[in-house]
What does this fold into?
Amino acid sequence: MSKMILHIGNYNYSSWSLRPWLVLRKSGLPFTVNVIDLDVPGFKDKLLALSSMGTVPVLEVHTTDGVQMIPDSLAICEFLAKCVPNLWPTDAATREKARQATKLMHEGFAALRNEAPMNLRRRTSTKMPKDCIADAADMDGLWQDLLADHDGAFLFKDWSITDAFYTPAATRFESYGIPRSARADTYISELMSDPDFQDWEAMAFKETHILPDTDKVNA
It folds into this structure.
């Protein structure tokens, strides 16, 4: 690969962009970032110019064979894992378990994602809807089960793509004051203290772009 560009949404709001950005950081592969402000005039045209899906993130990969555009967070991460295999657990059985947990985050927990959208600048104690709290409790239980299998800090002992996928969810517990177990709170603290995440968070706090509809949710 001669060049990679990760096209993302705003640092403060784009949970799907955060996931492959973290994986790219952990991979050590060189890349640059192109931020597309969301919900402004013409933003959808910019997204459709990158991919027929019309969403972020999109990884633009330049090689001697041409340019490849890879949309979807999980597809990007799977592509990166082919380049850097230790982004997944090395043991085959554990790796399959990690993929299943990642797919669950990729496709599930809709109430938590919709009713507590990622908003890194948000701090609120407003009572959350019951279905959102139920999703959060299910996620908390999943984390506890996975963490109980070892003495490591992350879901599969060492950091993996799975932790990247749950990092945006972890920020929601902080942003919206969502109840969690002591073990989940420790895991969240590990994710939030990660230097790469802190770099992303710092950029989110520097942003001036605001999504009013998102900021109104459970304000």
Observations:
- The chain has two domains: 3-85, 87-202.
- Residues 73 and 164 are 10 Å apart (CA to CA).
